Amino acid sequence: MDIVSALFSEDLQLREAPGPSTRIDLNGIMFSMAAPEPAPVTVTPHLIVLVRCRAEEAGEGVLVVEFRDEAGEQVARNASPFTVEPGKFTYRLVRAELTYATTPSTIEAHCRVGSGPVTVVPLTLLPPVS
Fold first, then answer.
1. Which CATH fold topology does 2-126 show?
2. Contacts of 129 (CB under 8 A, 6+ apart)
3. What is the pTM of this model?
4. 87-105: per-residue pLDDT in tens?
C-alpha cells in the first residue's frame, strides 16, 4: 500500500461523482498555524492520510504516525489498523495532542503504512496573533 497524500486540514468532505466515483474535498490545508495562546501550548490538529491499495494487495495494513519535535524526539504516536478493498483508496483521520514548548517551532508527522516508506508532514506553530 502507498500513502498518496498526508496533510493537516481543517475539514474533509466526501461526495459521489458519476462512475460511481468518490470525490474528497479538503479544506483549510495548513503547514503552519498561529498559537491560540502563548507557549507552552497544546493543539489538536487533524492529519488526513490518503492510502492506495493495489489490486493484488491484501487490503489490510497499519498506519503508523510518529510526531517528532525539532530535535527529532518523538512527542506523540498513533498506530491504527485499517482495511481497504483491494484496488481502492481509503483515508485515515489522525488527531494528536501536540504540545509546543516554544513558538515558533515545528513538529513533523512521520507517516508510514506498516514498514513502508515514510511521508513527512511539518506543522509549524507561530506566535499568537495579538
1. Immunoglobulin-like (2.60.40)
2. 34
3. 0.93
4. 999 999 999 899 999 989 9
